[in-house]
Amino acid sequence: MTTEPAEAGRDPEAVSKFVEGFAAQLVEAGMQRMPARVFAALLASDSGSLTSAELGVTLRVSPAAVSGAVRYLSQQHLVAREREPGSRRERYRVHSNQWYEALTNREAVLKRWENALSEGVTSLGADTPAGRRMAETLAFFEFIDGEIVAMMERWRVHREERFGRP
Predict the structure, then answer these.
(1) Can you list the residues of the chain whose pLDDT is less than 50?
(2) C-alpha distances in angstroms, 104 versus 6, 41, 127, 155?
(3) Which SS3 state, helix, strand or coil, does residue 31 take?
(4) How many Å apart are CA 100 and CA 84, to the nearest integer?
(5) The predicted structure's pLDDT at residue 8
(6) Res 7: pLDDT
């Protein structure tokens, strides 16, 4: 499945089945297919880091497909690009706490939505049916935003208890 020596003892077929199965779950949840496959392959590698060429071999895809997938994953804060020391090649790495990073970066999106919805309530009129619907939607996102902040703090404590300091 991968070219990493530490993974030589693994059953390549089982790893490939996991990567494709988890990628399918991510696609079902709304992620594009190629980014899902790249992300799953990176998660399944011991180092959490692969080059474009390694990803291409692992997934049997072109460098262009890997490049587009990595660009998307970087924008979603799920993958970071790193230069190999002394080389022009890049490695792509999953963050050690990628879900936390991705969710935390969604806070800015929620704030923009809250601002737009607030303007919508004002524009539509709070006493109109559309204005009330907009206000309820705004209240939902404000609630979610507050819950995410509290949940992320609980996660930091839980993660430290379970896995130690990062």
Answers:
(1) 1-6
(2) 32, 23, 34, 12
(3) coil
(4) 26
(5) 62
(6) 61
What distance in Å separates the CA atoms of residue 12 and residue 18, rounded to the nearest whole number?
Answer: 10
Q: State how far the alpha carbon of 71 is from the alpha carbons of 18, 36, 78, 89, 143, in Å.
A: 23, 12, 10, 15, 31
What token pair was written down for 128?
A: 């109109």
Distance of alpha carbon 43 from alpha carbon 146, whole angstroms: 29
- Residue given tokens 């996102």 in the structure block: 141
Q: Where are the beta strands (DSSP E) in 13-66?
A: 49-51
Which residues touch 27 (CB under 8 Å, ≥6 apart)?
A: 33, 36
DSSP 5: G
**What's the whole-model pTM score?**
0.74
d(CA 99, CA 42): 14
Burial letters 114-145, b for 16+ CB under 10 A, else e: beebeebbeebeeeeeebeebbeebeebbebe
The residue written with tokens 């690009």 in the block is: 81
Helix pair 33-44, 52-59: axis angle to 10 deg: 100
Q: What is the pLDDT of residue 89?
A: 85
Which pLDDT score, from 0 to 100, does residue 84 have? 77
